[in-house]
Amino acid sequence: MRAYQDMVFSTAVRLTGNAAQSEDISQDVFLKAYEHFEQLRASPAAGGWLKTVATRLTLNHLTRHRKRWRLFSEVFVDEPPERELDAAAASFDTVLQQLDGQERHALIEGALQRLPDHQRVPLVLFHFEEMSYKDIAQHLGRSLAKIKTDMLRGRLAMARSLAESGLAPTDGRSGTPS
After folding, report:
1. The dihedral of CA 65, 51, 23, 13: what is its sign?
2. How many CB atoms lie within 10 A of CB 106?
3. Are residue 114 and residue 152 in the same domain, yes or no?
4. Which domain holds residue 17?
5. CATH code, domain with 101
6. Residue 59 confidence (pLDDT)
7. Which of the listed residues 35, 70, 105 is the one where a domain comes to its end?
8. What is the pTM of this model?
9. What is the pLDDT of residues 66-99, one digit of tens each?
């Protein structure tokens, strides 16, 4: 089980954005693992089981605290123009493609931590947990349209964060910021 400590913690911290809460969730995951130790001891699927439990316990934790962040997710009643959201997503993807793996990972983790829960959680579930938009909407109890909007706004906020870090999309010709 020690081999999975980092994976369980990183799953929880990406979703919560809070190390202290993630430590508590990780403890709960390993308590559940202890309860199922005989089944997991020799199982080749133990890692997958732990990741699933970590994701579900973290989502349960966030659901219990949903009222805290619901206000923020509903601040924008009017939808921004679709082309603005598409351009933001394309800008974000362009910036990320220009970075090497380690630098990209560090910047993404930092930018994710600065996002509000309603944007960070769907992005993490989609990109790290490989859940579909439909599954994310179902797990979080929100509409599919709301999930898509929050994810696009999260990408926009991350692109702004990356730009504030001195990164900006290039025009693809000279390697200089556009």
Report:
1. negative
2. 11
3. yes
4. 2-70
5. 1.10.10.10
6. 85
7. 70
8. 0.56
9. 544 443 344 344 445 555 555 555 565 566 566 6
Rounded Cα gap, residues 13 and 109, in angstroms = 10
**Domain end position, chosen among 44, 70, 96:** 70
Domain membership flag for residue 175: no
Q: Is residue 49 assigned to a domain? A: yes
* 3-state SS, one letter per residue, for 117-131: HHHHHHHHHHHCCCC
Contact predicate 177/169, CB 8 Å:
yes
**Per-residue burial over 112-150, b = 16 or more CB atoms within 10 Å of its CB, e = otherwise:** beebbbbbbbbbbbbebbebeeeebbebbebeeebbebb
Domain count, the chain: 2
Rounded CA-CA distance 66/82 in Å is 27
Q: Do 86 and 152 reside in the same domain of the chain?
A: yes
User: b/e for 14-52, b at 16 or more Cβ within 10 A?
Assistant: bbbbeeebbeebbebbbebbeeeeeebeeeeebeebbbe
